């Protein structure tokens, strides 16, 4: 029985690790990115301009008062025009997403996003 539990755990870990795109921060690193000294737990805010779900993640183009930036987060349902707040995150430059088959000049990997009431 212990052998079966061990194999099941090993398979779960292998599958979880296999879903991360190359160069993607690890999940523990993404969780650390949420820890901030700021009194506001989600210091960034913007409006959703576009979203794409791929590889277990949601890629979100955010409009921050005319300046656009891309985020990658654990899958989340968002609507175009929706106001969101998000964690500080980890910045990656020249990131290539294998699942989307495209590059991002800059993308912020965040661990937490919340919808803000209008």
Structure characterization notes:
- It contains two helices and seven strands.
- Strand 1 and strand 2 (57-64) form a beta hairpin.
- The protein is globular, with a radius of gyration of 16 Å.
- It has 118 residues and is of the alpha+beta class.
- The chain has helices at 2-18, 27-33; strands at 44-54, 57-64, 67-74, 83-86, 90-97, 102-109, 113-115.
- 20% of the residues lie in helices and 42% in strands.
- The chain has one domain (2-115): OB fold (Dihydrolipoamide Acetyltransferase, E2P) (Beta Barrel).
- It has a seven-stranded mixed β-sheet with strand order 5-6-3-2-1-4-7, with helices on one face.
Taken as a percent bin, the fraction of beta residues is 35-45%
CATH topology name, in short, is: OB fold (Dihydrolipoamide Acetyltransferase, E2P)
Average pLDDT number = 79
Question: Widest sheet: strand order?
Answer: 5-6-3-2-1-4-7
| Sheet of most strands | 7 strands, mixed
Low-confidence stretches: none
Task: Describe the protein's topology.
Elements: H1 2-18, H2 27-33, E1 44-54, E2 57-64, E3 67-74, E4 83-86, E5 90-97, E6 102-109, E7 113-115
Parallel strand pairs: 3-6
Antiparallel strand pairs: 1-2, 1-4, 2-3, 4-7, 5-6
């Amino acid at each position: 029985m212990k052998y079966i539990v061990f194999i099941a755990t090993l398979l779960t870990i292998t599958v979880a690790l296999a879903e991360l795109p190359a160069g993607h921060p690890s999940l523990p690193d993404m969780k650390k990115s949420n820890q901030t000294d700021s009194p506001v737990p989600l210091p960034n805010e913007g409006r959703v301009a576009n979203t794409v779900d791929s590889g277990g993640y949601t890629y979100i183009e955010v409009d921050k008062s005319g300046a656009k930036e891309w985020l990658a987060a654990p899958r989340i349902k968002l609507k175009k025009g929706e106001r969101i707040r998000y964690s500080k995150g980890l910045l990656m430059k020249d990131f290539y997403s294998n699942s989307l088959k495209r590059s991002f000049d800059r993308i912020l990997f965040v661990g937490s996003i919340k919808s803000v009431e209008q």
